[in-house]
Amino acid sequence: MKNPFGQTNRFDKSRAITDPEEKPKDPEAYTAHKKKLATSFAKLLQDRADRLERKTLKVENISIVEVRFLIPFSNVAPYYALNKFLKDFGLSPVMQRDFNRTVLFAIVDEAKFGNFHILLNQYVESDKRTPPQGTPYAIMTTLFDVKYHTADAIRNNCSGDLVFEFISNNAEVNAKYDLQRAFLIEYLDERRVLEEISSFTIDPYDKMVQIKGASKQVMVEIAQNFDVVAQAHSLRTVTVRPDKFNIKQLTWDLSINNSDDNTMTIGVLDNGIRPIGPLNEIVLDGLDVTESGDSLAASHRHGTVVASLAAVGHRFFGTQNNLTADAKIYSIKIMDGVDGYIDVIKVTEAIRSIHYSHGVRLFNLSVCIQSKAYNEMPSFFAYLLDKLSYELDVLIFIAAGNMYQDDLLAMQEDSHELHVYPNHFYNPGVSSAIHECTFTNICAPAESMNNITVGALADNYRPDTPTHLSLDKNLPAYYTRKNHYDFKQPINGVRLSNNYSNRNLFKPDIVMPGGDLLNDDSAMQVLGFGDNGNDYYVFDAGTSLATPIAANLAAQLMNLYPNIALQSVKALMINSADSYSHAHLDESVEKRRELLAERDYQSAFDDLGGAQKAVITRQILSAEDIHRNIAGYGKPDQEKLLYSTDNAVSLVLEDVISMDHHKVFLINIPEYLLNSTNGKSLHIQATLSFKMNPAWGNHVDYNPLHMSFNFLNSFIKDSPDKLAEVIADRHHDFYQGIWTEEIEQLQNKKDEEALSKEEKKRLAKLKTEAIGNLLGFKTSVNRWSEDFFPLVNKPLSNRQQISIKLAKKDIQKIGNQLVLAVRCAVKENLDSDLQEWIRRTPMHQFSIALRITDESKLEDKPKLYEELQAINTLEIIANTMADLDQDLEADA
Predict the structure, then answer these.
(1) What is the b/e burial string over 327-343, where b = at least 16 CB atoms within 10 angstroms of the residue's CB?
(2) Exposed site from 252, 377, 769, 886, fewest CB < 10 Å?
(3) Could you tell me which residue ranges the Peptidase S8/S53 domain spans (predicted)?
């Protein structure tokens, strides 16, 4: 879509309304909190002394303390904590977790840190009858507890091959940080010579050190002496389930042929691909990052199966035995068997190398590492893949991960209600001897935001076979993993307010068929090696199989449109997805509601008062939300993804926007729809996707870039720039022309004398309604795809969706011209690297996929496809992104 646009350098990031004032507590209510802080600080001082005493190496010391907050750590009123902790307490933040409610600080000024201790003591010893609000020590009421960062916290119960994450380097710790880091490299070099470790690698962004073959003594010594390491993480993969059933067949009876040189190539990151009969023509070559030395050798069929599905997708399960591949395969061997360790730095280096040397843009990663705790920040692995996708023109399809096989078997042998589908997915606070819902959270690096995460449906592409553990083939499979973000769960004992949560932050992005467990009838029939003469096919199931089927769809799209932006591929796949009903989760939600009512009020939910019911409801995810957290946007529809029809048209908008800008695009609507007699004439579904440059060690700012979009009324026809300017500024003089008589009266009274509190509320409400009626294509403005407020404390998503219906009266109101508005802002208080990125990157790319469907019931109506093409500027996707890249280079 190349329609006219307008833009303005405006983005008012304030809020028209104020948050409700916090009600003061009874001063005695702080008694337990005071005791907790006093105890935790005494323990901090003891742990600090112990750590200094136990250091065995002569390395410059950096004292690291951990503070858990009850509110976000940020630079907003009334505490301005970021400035205060550095200026008054000598504490510089070096790692922020739990949506910036848990912060590691480096003590950079001992005298000022003494002030922290003094202030804390003042709070602890304050009169029980004196409220802390308004006192110098009021900020202490925002603390949950404090502790020293000990060696045990750093080691994190890890052993073997692992990654040590570095704290963030900043101006306050830079000198000591550099000395410690240099000492650490010397130390690791010595340990390598002494064969106490096998190897070590620093990642390209200097955010982590990966160590292989480390003895326990070395790990303990690193944790005890080096303060620049924040925490250790294991590199062990989630075990791939070995095949259980064989199909007695004496040949594969299948051949997969290469089509031509222009077919897309998919890099398969797995345990090697054996070029068995069906695959020998489509597997190009390989790169081995393990010690085996042969990327085309595999002791287990996992990577080989993944390659076959990436090449031909769902057609593998059809009746034809002579297939032409949609994609060629490049093998990237990242592990030897079905479990072990992944060298994450070599994985990212391999992706970079294959992209540059062979032009590979699509990759499949069907293996993963440890699962995520609720609301855990993005992993080091996800960070590396997000950086890679931001810097390169690549898109990685990542498996959400499967529940552990042993757990699945044990749960079926135990009749606990929690083990019954779908109860096992989401029941916080409820557990059995062998299961709690945390165990169904996604595995790293599936939380990667720039790439596509794929979950599994129970469908196995065999229509005459039943499911086993799952209720229906159209539903998520029992074993598939869900979103680990849950804004209903407390952090440091406090639940997040709506302002600090984000409904767009969920994984997986999509789901594809992956088969069901635990019997062969419910599983998928996939390739075996044929080593035993009767194992040419086996049965299997998993997100490992769903993921390459999704990657194959992307390859098909790119075969049709080879120059399409990869974020457009992501947007189109999500936009084409259909989600099945969430009714199967209603009973689980009802049971959870009753459980909380009994726990909190010792009563049935229906017997509670309205206020009590509201308290319970605020703690519960709806069935729709739970389903979204398991199935994402749903299953992509191949026909919708790849093609338009006469009355359903797919469009892509690929463009750029500058920071603190609003940009508007005009979409012309065919006039024939004004003859519609039914309520809904046009359905438009749109998905925004963009790449973001991730922030290290800052959970809230991990995605530092806000973009969102909306559909609005084109109330100014002659100037798109003026239209953008008015939309961007709710205080614009233009709006004075739409004020009602009551607004004018209140406005005049405001100019002459003070308004009462009720009158101020009334005036604000009337103005909001008037502006909303003007901006909206209906009587009020549609919600933006993502709320930016408060930008400083809001975790942001980089893909969002809006679905709207236009009736005849709506099309009349907008004069057959709909506005697609896009806005952009960047987080503040970012580290020096991202500040430089902001300076160097004035414009940011984005893609919006639109599916416009004629839902009118007109007889003998024109074709929507032809009508849209006649009145809009549309181009077949060919060189659009090449042109865009040239524009960006010129602007930079």
Answers:
(1) bbbbbbbbbbbbebbbb
(2) 886
(3) 263-587
* Bond prior to 518 in cis (omega within 30° of 0): yes
Q: 517 with 480, same domain?
A: yes
Which residue from 568, 845, 570 is spatially nearest to 691, judged by alpha carbons?
845
pLDDT digits (tens, 9 = 90+) for 487-520: 999 999 998 888 899 999 999 999 999 999 988 8
The span from the CA of 462 to the CA of 516, in Å, is 11
Other Cβ atoms less than 10 A from the Cβ of 83: the count is: 11
Domain boundary among 128, 149, 170: 149
| Cβ 419 vs Cβ 727: under 8 Å | no
Domain carrying residue 373:
245-403+443-560
pLDDT tens per residue across span 246-300: 555 557 889 999 987 789 999 999 999 999 999 999 998 899 999 888 999 999 9
- In terms of Cα–Cα distance, which of 733, 821, 725, 743 is closest to 777? 821
Closest C-alpha to 230, from 807, 840, 697, 776: 697
Half-sphere exposure at residue 84, Cβ-oriented, CA atoms within 13 angstroms: 18
CATH number of the CATH domain containing 220 = 3.30.70
- pTM (predicted TM-score): 0.95
Residue 430 lies inside a defined structural domain of this protein: no
Q: What is the CATH number of the domain that holds 691?
A: 2.60.120.380
Q: Would you place residue 22 in the very low, low, confident or very high pLDDT band (cuts 50, 70, 90)?
A: low
Joined together, the tokens standing for residue 444 give: 């790293």
Question: Residue written as tokens 């951990």?
Answer: 66
Q: Give the C-alpha separation, 604 to 437, whole Å.
A: 24
Query: Residue 864 and residue 852: Cα distance in Å, rounded?
Result: 9
Q: Are 467 and 525 in contact (CB under 8 A)?
A: no
Q: How many CB atoms lie within 10 A of CB 41?
A: 21
81 and 130 inside one domain: yes
Residues 6+ apart with CB under 8 A from 848: 571, 652, 653, 686, 687, 688, 689, 709, 820, 822
Copy the structure tokens of residue 608.
């509670």
Q: Could you report the per-residue pLDDT of 356-412, keeping only the tens digit for each?
A: 999 999 999 999 999 999 999 999 999 999 999 999 989 999 999 999 989 999 999
Using left for φ > 0, alpha for ψ between -120 and 50, and beta otherwise, residue 816 falls in left
Alpha-carbon gap, residue 115 to 285, rounded angstroms = 63
Find the length of the chain: 892
Distance, CA of 309 to CA of 443 (rounded, Å): 22
DSSP 677-709: -SS--EEEEEEEE----PPTTBSTTSS-EEEEE
Residue range 808-866, pLDDT digits in tens: 999 999 999 999 999 999 998 899 999 999 999 999 999 999 999 999 989 899 999 99
Q: How is 91-142 classified by DSSP, letter by letter?
A: EEEEEEETTTTEEEEEE--HHHHHHHHHHHHHHHTS-TTS--TTSTTGGGGG
